[in-house]
Specification:
single chain, mainly beta, four-stranded antiparallel beta sheet, 5 helices
Length: 421
Amino acid sequence: MKTKSIYYPTHYFHRTFSCFLFFLIFQISTGQNSSDNKSSVNTDFDELPKIKWKLKTSKPIFSSPVISENTVYLGGTDSVLYAIDFESGKEKWRFRTNGEIRSNVCIDEDFIYLNGGDGTIYKLEKQSGKVVWDFETKGEKKVDFADYFQSTPVLLNDMLFFGSGDGYFYAVDAKKGKEIWKFKTGNAVHTTPAIANGKVFFGSFDGFVYALDLQKGKLVWKFKTVGHKYFPTGDVNGSPTVFKNKVFIGARDYNFYALDQEKGFCHWNKAFFRGWALNSSISDSVLYIGSADERVLIGADPETGAEFWKTNMEFLVFGNNTYSKTLLYVGTTNGKLQAFSKLTGKYIWSFETETYLQNRLKYFKPDGTYRDDIYSIIKSNEQFLEVECELGGIFTTPVIHGKCILFTSTNGRLYCLEKQN
């Protein structure tokens, strides 16, 4: 087990400077692999995998790769959606939008659905990237420096569901690109929705979690987060996970909530001392939660929230974890992809990006703790994000496909690591 503790900067900065991830539908809403290779979850990477290939883009990446028919799709803040050959890492085609792409693509048999980061949702031909239709919302916005992600569209029965920075949640006809209904909230909706039992669940920066009727967009219930002195609205920028009768979701009020699917009341909540826990996944009836400033990965009972184990991650977790048969894989914002036992949380291995290795001594001592003069180096939240990008921070969810695990980084790279045995 890892025991080293290196808490400090983001806890300080986030508070002192005004504080501030289907292929199929349930693969996104539960954090499972965005890959069409159904055997992927049985591939345990029990030893450190090696680089098969990597692709460099020009700007940081805050979207996770999605894989279909041996093609990898991902977007970047360079406003480009890339289609990449899985075997070689070579680009097949690209599509440019007018905004920073900060969400994953949604894919069906023949088409891609993309949130362009510019207030427009695009339907593209999967093989060529040719536009089939585009749907314009009332516009996108970035709420603050830590608003890293936007809503990934989710497809069900020819209906496409997504949130927007204009404060609306939309249902659009996936065949025609026409609005079916929309629902107004009090602020940006940047969470990726989850769907279960005829309802769609999502959160808004207005501090509410919403459940809407899937067909008509009528409000079934809404839940108000508690709020926190640094985030009094209790902005909801975590994406929900649905399991049995509950909806699991994190908010900026340092709480992680287990809400009742039917009524919207809170079964339990887990309070974090140092910050947000935005994403979760469930495997073998265990709830896995990663926390940002708390810097922990937790295995918990979804019925009660009781912890089975807790592991120190040594740095922030913003992306979701993915899992195989016995292992969890999660990235941290200092540029490390790490593997842990699902059963115990025991640390197995760590892959460090080249940008972390090149730049770590600018900010850390050789033992991994912060330099004594770190306050004179990093003086704001914005500077801290710049450092995370310089280190190659991983804000996204890794994806397993065959004997490879893929992930993206704020150093602008897509990595494909291959199992060695």
